[in-house]
Amino acid sequence: MISRHVCSSNCQPLALAEIPVLSGDEFRAELAGQLSAGCQLSALFGQPCGSQTVRLFAVTGEATAATLRVFASDVADRYPSLTPDCPAAHWFEREIAEQWGIKPEGHPWLKPIRFHPSYRDGRDAWGRQPGQAIAPCVADYFRVEGEEVHEVAVGPVHAGVIEPGHFRFQCLGEHVFHLEIELGYQHRGIVRRLAGGPDKRTIHYMETLAGDTTVGHATAYCQAVEAFAGREAPLRAQALRAVALELERLANHTGDLGALAVDVGFLPTSAYCGRLRGDFLNTTAVLCGSRFGRGLVRPGGVAFDVDQERSAEMRRRADLTFQDVAGAAELLWHAPSVMARFDGTGVVPRTVCDELGLVGMTARACGVDRDVRRDFPAGFYRFAQIPVSTWHTGDVFARAYVRWLEVQRSARFLDEQLGALPRGDVRRELGPLRPDALVVSLVEGWRGEICHVALTGGDGRFAQYQVVDPSFRNWIGLALALRNQQISDFPVCNKSFNLSYCGHDL
With a threshold of 0.90, does the pTM exceed it? Predict the structure, then answer.
């Protein structure tokens, strides 16, 4: 019997020839069967295969067995949509349609997501003419009809200094029936530019995919390159990468707790956390000179080492900052006015979370016991585990409280590792990359699962490099969290997800 998928693990290279190419019906059945059995869809993307065909690749993860499954199918200009049977494929199929001009027939709401021309000349899933100008967010929108139903449009320019995004609410008074989110204003075409690499620019692209996730994306990329080269980074470098990744998590979670306090008018925690986020960022700067970790993670290891004195200083700073965060968090949890706004607001039911394949703290706030650091460990997380933090209510409180739980556990991890860093080198040279192969690299970024899938051609260069930022997976979760809420709850719901616009618009 021919296998319908090939199994792999995080950062394990696969020969492209080993990946089964299924018929359309077999591909659908395999994907639906795996998702119904508890696997999660990590990536679904296309790559041209000849002049008339695009090969669809699916990557799913079985957390209980630490196993990734990869399989493929060839499609022409159209194919029956996967989304009706596999809702987690919703945005992936929209992305494929936009990139390669392939129409998933029967897709429930087929719209562009980044508003750019197809990468294949003369192909367009919406029948637009070659060279036709494409304006961001000019598209059909879902409408709720009724005499007293009205529409509220927000953005793309917002009052605060934030990224551009367009939100349309269908409301009856203050009651929200539906929120539709349109992005695309930040599309920079970075993923398209990664083909043909790696080169000197590649690592800099990775560090700027999402500005607040420098370490997460750089680590995912470097792990992939090291897997192709068949060489691991030295153990000390792996430990320093993990330290930087947890500092990134600590800084962003702390900042989010403060921002959530702002949105409900609770100034003490807001004021504290705004400063404390900066203190964690400054601790990262002690490590590598950049508050956001730029220039630290490099293929083969890290670009900076720390001596015993500097390690002790980082440990001291992180401990003091954590103690202050603990005080600020206690103020938040014990304020009745805060809990009145957090409890029961913006609920995402567990069933919806599972169907859509939400990731990270958003999923763990719905009770999903999943974390790449434990389930698909790579790098230093193979040797030093961090307990998974979950809650069960799926509301704003849960998403805030999971952040606080993760802050505590990341701070403990940081203290332990900085006090006992492995000895040895921090970087080694890599050889040529394995040709005609595929690598899946997963990292638990502070927002959730970061997935990089790289394919090499016969020359060992990237034939395709696909990035799935956790925001790409979770924006639809925000839209559903607003259903049956008051429109005034949007700011606090939005901040409880705190998704990246540019991380989506790759």
Answer: yes
